[in-house]
Amino acid sequence: MSIFEGLSSDIIKKAINEYTLNGMSAWDHVAQIVMMLAACGAFLVGFKFLSDNMEKLAGGALKKLFNKTSDKKLIGVGIGAVSTAVVQSSGVTTVMVVGFVNAGIMSLYQAASVIMGANIGTTITAQIAALGSFDIAPIFIALLFIGVLMEMLFKNDKIKSIGLALAGLGLVFFGLEIMSSSMSIYKELPAVKNFLEVITNPFLLLLFGVVFTALLQSSSAVTTIIIAMAIEGLVIGGGGNAVLYIILGSNIGSCVTALISSIGTSVNARRASIIHLLFNVTGTLLFMIMLLIWSEDVVGYDFFKVTFAKWFKEPATQIAMFHTFFNLICTLIFLPFTKVLVKISQLIVREKKQKEKEPWEFVYMDKRFLNTPSVALGQLKKETFRMADMSMNSLNIAFRGFIDRDLGAIDKVYAENENVAKLSGQISDYLVRSSAVGVSLSDEKLVSTLHSNVGDIARIAELADNVTKYTKREVRDNLVFSEGINAKLEIMHEKLQEQYTLVKSIVLDGKKELIEQSDALEDEIDEMRRNLVAEHIERLSQGKCKPENNTIFVNLVCNMERIGDHLNFIVHSD
């Protein structure tokens, strides 16, 4: 017979209720632990709300920022720091960097400095969290209510995003406040104090920081939780340098996101993630050596006690400042050795013979950009005009084939149009995906515009294909056109090329002042079509032109005029 037989659930509940620890029943302790976990969840949700909506608000600025990448290291550091401070996540920035390197837009040299900057930018979260040690936390929590009201009452997409960002910030502080109050119950409890103080081994603390950050995929979140503990006076590892080892470990753990993101990418993209890892691991090793030497056991006093603990009053501020100090000093140390980091990454990830990209495969776009829709749409815009380059090239081949009576141009146009069709499908697919992720109103308009542009560009390729049919008929029936006609067609074709150059400058470079010039050119092409058709009809009536030329000639000039229309549609769709 089991020893538990005959025990009712009421007896068990009574036994649990009668068990007390620090003046609280077991159920009370369970409730506090659940509250602590819920608060941690609220903090992480708030952190995501803040990050996602700041990303939406700063989408245009982020696009411009990453378009300004240069070989100047300090500019790269600035781009990394600012973009990470805005989106509140070094993971987002490093994943974007991996994507840019994978697409071949950013060199490893440029990526290295941006990654260093991202490590500095990510420390802003800990600085914000450290404010929780002051009496201003209730003000930030009030933002939760204000932000939700803004999201509910306003229809403007930008105001809604501001509201959700404020609500996210409020939720971060709300979570921290609840976590702190839950932790405060246990700070004087001998069992808890002993548990926190028993782990004094620096390498175990470092490992804890690595694993915990790898699980949460955010060094900022881990640092913030450590700060919440510090606010309530919970001492880790007996004090001194102990808490710093966890902070160092969190920096290594933050590399997991970029390493996962680099799986299946190009050699250089994998090298970019290795540079991120090298920067954090090497920096951590240098600081570990310093902290192990500059400790109470070796020199009689801890680094932390005579520096940050002395300079700043609040424990939370001390930890946040060390986090910033670590990343800033590492950047200053390694920035002059950027080329060395690149070289080491090249030795670790060996060059392999890369399969040459097909013309229809993305050059500017990378699936990793979907985490930042505004950046993804900027890259898709570039891909759309690469598709336009291909369509216009198809037109050039087809037109040249018609003038030279070259049937070999037909297969070339067919192959180019196949690439246009495949690239068109890819762009449309990623436009749908970008929209599904959730974009701002302005970005949603851009999605609609790009869908329209893709359709116009695909139509240009189809019109180029029509020209090859006229070439086939011209050669098959041995048609000969009137003297001087080819020269006039050449002029019309040149005007289309000139119009396309203007369209690219207007849409890609934002040179709106050229719209009037583009419209005037389109009007000239329309006028040329009218004049050419009128002259052709006159020649027919005078017997100077063969009637069998009629269909081909009229269709050719009409098709060329329609290409001008589609280019004009692209200009005015923005």
Give a verbal description of the structure:
It is a single chain. This protein is elongated. It folds into two domains: 14-348, no CATH class; 367-573, Phosphate transport system protein phou homolog 2, domain 2 (Methane Monooxygenase Hydroxylase, Chain G, domain 1, Up-down Bundle). The chain contains 26 helices and two strands. Helix 5 runs parallel beside helix 14 and helix 14 (255-261) runs antiparallel to helix 15. The chain has helices at 9-18, 26-57, 59-67, 73-87, 90-102, 108-121, 124-130, 137-153, 157-184, 190-198, 202-216, 219-231, 242-253, 255-261, 267-293, 296-299, 303-306, 308-311, 315-334, 338-348, 373-404, 408-437, 441-476, 485-508, 515-542, 550-573; strands at 20-21, 24-25. The protein has a two-stranded antiparallel ribbon. A hairpin with a 2-residue loop joins strand 1 (20-21) and strand 2. The protein has 574 residues and is mainly alpha-helical. Mean pLDDT is 81; it is low at 1-8.
